[in-house]
Design brief:
The chain has about 400 residues and is an alpha/beta fold. The protein has helices at about 10-15, 45, 50-55, 75-80, 95-100, 135-145, 205-220, 245, 260-265, 280-290, 300-305, 310-330, 375-380, 390-400, and strands at about 25-30, 60-65, 110-120, 125-130, 155-160, 165-170, 230-235, 250-255, 270-275, 295-300, 335-340, 355-360, 385.
Length: about 400
């Protein structure tokens, strides 16, 4: 079935042919940015990136909207788009991605939810949505306490993910709807949102989650930072086409953060955990090179720096990635796609709707002769703004993965 506005995954799957070529997707999370003042450089433009600049000179470069013009994407939709899935059609809550990311054995009917430990003041207003990014070991102590909350006939699992993040899984005795709104207000200075059912079928779920949150606040009372929890991304396992079937590639993923391993596993990729050091991505690629022909390497720090409003740190971590580019190219990928899943400007301290720079390098690229890899050169390249989900079919085509369509 075709996605709205273009061919769908099944259409691409019909064109797949055997090919020994290799495709590398390097995602710098939250890559896109904004200048701190009018006329200044973005974080990517301020970074010294001689290796990415060299690739950009002989690559197609441009900008992409992960979802659509004016839409600020979450990390899940942003990555699904990069994998070639239309995020407006293939929708999934963050909970399932976190569960798959840490290898939690979800069962049909389980409702998975992404949780943040947060800090609230005496008036109940959120003062820190991430509880100071508490260490993972501290989160593990807290989830042990939360797991002891009684929940009647519904089994409830709580697992630490990374830093302030945790996973909540509801396993009810019968059908239960995940159609609940997030409780994370997305900003500080206001209380967590009430648990709200999006349909009559979800009212029982809402009542259960509301009671769990009330009990969780009692358990967490007295904690210096993580004294409350925010929930988002209520979801259940979907039944989707797989990435290997759609694009004819044996797919491998390496990411430090579980959520990104989760979205990779959701679409049928083998995924491993790596350290945040960029050199770990090189090692992972080298180890996987012989058994796979598609490689998704994820680097989180640019997004973290952007969310913290730290322009200089975002510049520095982009430069760290640039330094490993020669080693990545040493594995001899035939096609290289470098981009981000969304923009996270330090100026805004949050994800934004701004189009994201990309470069698509191969020996059959139509080079625009871009003077560097940055928002300005990518905007001036003449390609325009693509939809994010168009990039993977272009990468696969450049790798010779598709036969001709029609007679």
């Amino acid at each position: 079935m075709s996605d709205a506005g273009g061919p769908g995954l099944a259409d691409y799957a019909d064109l797949v042919q055997p090919s020994e070529t290799k495709v590398l997707l390097l995602v710098l999370d939250g890559l896109g940015g904004l200048p701190l003042e009018p006329g200044g450089p973005t974080e990517l433009e301020a970074a010294r990136t001689p290796n990415l600049d060299d690739l950009a000179w002989t690559a197609e470069v441009g900008l992409h909207d992960p979802v659509g013009p004016g839409i600020t994407p979450g990390s899940g939709p942003g990555h699904l788009a990069l994998f070639g899935y239309d995020p407006l059609r293939y929708r999934i809550g963050r909970g399932v991605l976190e569960a798959l990311g840490i290898g939690f054995p979800l069962e049909p009917g389980d409702i998975a939810v992404r949780g943040n430990f947060c800090t609230v003041d005496g008036a109940g207003n959120v003062t820190d949505r991430r509880a100071g990014r508490i260490p993972t070991a501290e989160a593990e102590r807290l989830v042990e306490a939360l797991e002891r909350i009684p929940n009647g006939e519904t089994r409830v699992f709580v697992r630490a993910v990374k830093e302030h993040r945790f996973l909540l899984v509801l396993r009810p005795p019968g059908p239960m709807s995940p159609d609940l709104a997030d409780t994370d207000p997305g900003r500080t200075g206001v209380p967590p949102l009430h648990v709200t059912a999006g349909s009559t079928a979800a009212q029982a779920t809402a009542a259960l989650v509301s009671e769990w949150l009330r009990a969780a606040r009692e358990v967490l009372a007295g904690e210096p930072a993580a004294n409350m929890a925010l929930l988002r991304g209520f979801s259940v396992l979907p039944d989707w086409p797989s990435f290997p079937d759609a694009f004819g590639m044996r797919a491998f993923a390496a990411a430090a953060y579980p959520m990104y391993r989760g979205v990779a596993r959701l679409v049928g990729m083998e995924a491993i955990a790596v350290d945040e050091d960029p050199s770990a991505l090189v090692t992972a690629l080298e180890d996987a090179a012989s058994a796979h022909d598609f490689f998704f390497l994820h680097f989180k720090p640019p997004d973290k720096a952007g969310e913290d409003g730290d322009f200089d740190r975002k510049v520095a971590v982009i430069e760290e990635v640039d330094r490993i580019v020669p080693a990545l190219m040493g594995v001899r990928p035939d096609v290289v796609l470098v981009t981000g899943d969304h923009s996270t400007p330090s100026l805004l301290r949050a994800h934004s709707w701004h189009p994201v720079p990309y470069l698509l390098w191969s020996n059959v690229s139509r080079s625009g002769g871009a003077e560097g890899f940055g928002e300005g050169p990518c905007a001036q390249a003449g390609v325009g703004v693509r939809r994010g989900r168009e990039l993977m079919p272009l990468a696969a085509a450049a790798a010779g993965k598709f036969v001709k369509f029609g007679a």
